[in-house]
Design a protein that fits this description.
single chain; mainly alpha; Growth Hormone, Chain: A; transport; transmembrane helix; MFS_trans_sf; transmembrane transporter activity; MFS_dom
Length: 456
């Protein structure tokens, strides 16, 4: 066995420290972020829908209007993060959204629900692309899929742990004189405010300022990132306007935005309506579930999804990102989600939905390693925010359209067929982008880099 060179040893320890010191904390922020964003999906079938007299379309609109505020401010928010630093900006976002989320405890009408969901989107704008940008600025591209995979574990695990936690809070009906779903909103909001305050002191904007890195590790990370960024779009710009133009006129950014649209359309159709679909099993199959039963059933698809996400990201890191790492799961998800409609029992339906969840979560962290291959600086901030904006458009569309089509048709057949169509479209676009870039020589999803596996 060949001994590590000094450079390889420094690389291994630097990446390990980033993985331990930064990724778990940012992932915890993401966990709380996604729980606050989707808490409404647990509240609706457990009292909120009845108390506020919501139709499926109204619930879909309330779920989706979150993304309107998010979309409007997403790119400006990520540019502000690039200017002021992740520590300040991510802290500000968390405290703001925690305060808005807390107000859901006292919502009393559908109109108030719409307003608060919109304001929650405004408050959260830029968090996810900001977190992606922040982590991408700490490691070179050959390690980025691994780092983003570890970060992305927070999203499926939010439902694995968050659904039973939400169910437990909902079960405390009458606490402080509040209905159970209001108790849930109260207690899932407070951690965001607390984490926002801690983030101000804990996060660090760049490797050169990290006291927990040795000088050799700081120098290696800084040198690697500067060398890598020098050849990317935005790498030679000194001012934001030129980099913004570089991102907004880059065809690959727009194609990736459309690819991401399909994945997020499927993700939020599941996130917002799976608890409602499970609630419908009671009438469909003449059975009864308690609040905690429904919470645990909701969590089932997401634990295997977290496992698949981890190993899929690990494979992509070790062997290089390939188009099929993204397009393959899109095909599986696109076929499986409408197939769930034809299962004859709750167990079979949830099993097929589990396959869909595994497919979506396997692809997402690998997908997010692609934009930073050709964007840096403010261009990366703008490009990543633009791609995520397309995802937020999908979040609004999937939430509202799914509810509207369900009210119109009386069941979930048409809306879930539409989910399948968008995911298959994402697969086709990803393959087309790879083919196009191979013809032009541009860097896309397929990576030909070879590197020592220093983090095993």
């Amino acid at each position: 066995m060949v001994a590590d060179t000094p450079s390889a040893a420094v690389e291994r320890t630097a990446i390990k420290k980033v993985s331990i010191r930064l990724v778990p904390f940012v992932a915890l922020m993401f966990f709380v972020n996604y729980l606050d964003r989707t808490a409404v999906s647990f509240a609706e079938p457990n009292g909120m829908g009845q108390d506020l007299a919501l139709t499926a379309a109204q619930f879909g609109f309330a779920s989706g209007i979150f993304f309107v505020g998010y979309i409007v401010l997403e790119v400006p928010s990520n540019m502000a993060l690039h200017r002021f630093g992740a520590r300040r900006w991510l802290s500000r976002i968390m405290v703001t959204w925690g305060i808005v989320s807390l107000l859901f405890t006292w919502v009393s009408s559908s109109e108030q629900l719409y307003v608060l969901r919109f304001l929650l989107g405004v408050a959260e704008a830029g968090f996810f692309p900001g977190a992606i940008l922040f982590l991408s600025q700490w490691v070179p591209s050959r390690h980025r899929t691994k780092i983003l995979g570890l970060f992305y574990l927070a999203q499926p695990l939010t439902t694995v742990f968050g659904a039973p936690l939400a169910g437990w809070f909902i079960g405390h009906d009458g606490l402080f004189g509040l209905e159970g779903w209001r108790v849930m909103f109260l207690f899932v909001s407070l951690p965001a405010i607390l984490l926002g305050v801690i983030a101000w002191f804990y996060l660090i904007d760049r490797p050169a300022d990290a006291k927990w890195l040795t000088q050799d590790e700081k120098d290696w990370l800084t040198r690697e990132l500067e060398t890598e960024n020098s050849g990317k779009t935005g790498g030679d710009h000194k001012h934001g306007k030129g980099e913004l133009k570089a991102a907004f006129t880059n065809a690959r950014v727009w194609i990736l935005a459309l690819v991401y649209f399909g994945f997020v359309y499927g993700l939020y159709a599941l996130a917002f309506f799976l608890p409602t679909i499970i609630n419908g099993f009671q009438e469909q199959y003449d059975t009864t579930f308690s609040v905690m039963d429904k919470a645990w059933i909701t969590a089932i698809p997401y634990l295997p999804a977290a496992v698949v996400l981890f190993f899929w990201s690990r494979h992509a890191t070790r062997h290089g990102v390939r188009t099929w790492h993204i397009a393959g799961p899109a095909v599986v998800g696109g076929v499986s989600i409408p197939l769930a409609l034809y299962m004859g029992s709750p167990a079979a339906t949830v099993a097929v939905i589990t396959i869909t969840a595994c497919a979506i979560f396997a692809a997402l962290p690998v997908f997010w390693s692609v934009p930073s291959r050709f964007l840096t600086g403010a261009a990366a901030a703008a490009g990543i925010a633009l791609i995520n904006t397309a995802g937020n458009v999908a979040g609004f569309a999937s939430s509202y359209v799914t509810g509207w089509l369900k009210d119109l048709s009386g069941d979930y057949y048409v809306p879930l067929y539409l989910v399948g169509f968008f995911m298959l479209l994402s697969a086709a676009l990803m393959v087309w982008l790879a083919t196009r870039d191979s013809d032009t020589g541009a860097p896309a999803a397929d990576s030909e880099h070879k590197h020592m596996e220093t983090t095993r």
